[in-house]
# Entry
Amino acid sequence: LLKHLQATVIWWNALFLASAQDEGELLRRLEGSVFTMGALNAATKESLFRSHSSESPPVIIQELDTPQQIALLAKSMDDVKDPTNPYELLSSYSRIALCNVGDPIGAQRVLIALAKEMGEECSYSLTLNRYEQICDRQVERNGLRTSVAREILKSPLLEEHQGRCSFRHENPKNYFEGEGILRLNAATLVESISKPRYESVAPLLLGA
# Structure
């Protein structure tokens, strides 16, 4: 929104302005602090994480983009026995990310099916229409709430862009794809993780 505006008053009484200009003429005439916003870098991500947790930031923090996701990751550290275990950490992260979904277990089933579908198509996103079909299939098979598709899209795990649905990051996708593999019998499991398409999932499963 802001990039299309010269400047906008966020709160009139406080004269708090936001502008897309590097140096707006209006800002030069005002007194007070000037703050700039930008993408989080490695240092600010770690600082933000440490403000929420006394633990050392895990490696996967660099894949996160927003303060909300980093705070969620920090909260996830409280539930894991081994913070260096990516599988255990992603399991906790995903569970907390789905805490506002009406049926978290049902949502996990949908996400497992979604990750499986993406893996089979060698794609990191699916059309929203395909996503809704996957949700409808899980609703029918497992008696899930019909609102599950909308609720999961609002979680920190998925995002919608230009008519397509994707996981916000590769690690959660790999985690849910791995969860689907773990539900297979032992012989099929060994055969599956030996396939080239699972080379990014297999190391994660070693910690399962």
Q: What stands out?
A: Residues 65 and 206 are 26 Å apart (CA to CA).
